[in-house]
Amino acid sequence: MEDAAFWVLAVLAVAAGAAVFVVDSMARATFALLASFLCVGAELLLIDLHYLGVLVVLMMIMEMLVMAVFMVMYMMNPAGLMPMTMMHNARGAAGISVALFAALAAGIFAVPWPERAGRPPRDPTFALGESIMGPKMLVMMVIGIAILATMIAAVVLATHRGRYGDDA
Amino acid sequence: MVEVVVIGALAVAAATLSGALAGRPAAPFQEAVRLLTLQRRATHRADRLLTTVGVVSLPVAAALAALVVPFGDRVAVGSSVGVVWFNAMEVVAWASVWLAGWGVNSAYALVGGYRFLAQGLAYELPHMFALITAALGAHSLDLRVIAAAQHGLWFAVWMPVAFAVYLLSTLAMTFWGPLGHPVGGDLAGGAMAELSGPDRLVLLAGRYGLLAVAAAVAVPLFLGGGAGPLLPGWLWSLVKACAVLALLVWTRGRVPVLRMDRAMAAAWTVLIPAVLLQMLVVGIVVV
Amino acid sequence: MTLETFLLLAAALFCVGLFGALSQQSVVMLMMGLELMINGVVVAAAGFWFWVSPGLPDGQVLVLVAITVMALEMAMGFAVVTALFRARDVDMTDDAGDLKG
Question: Which of A23, A62, A73, A151 would you mutate first to test chain B, the one with the most B CBs within 10 A?
Answer without folding.
Answer: A62
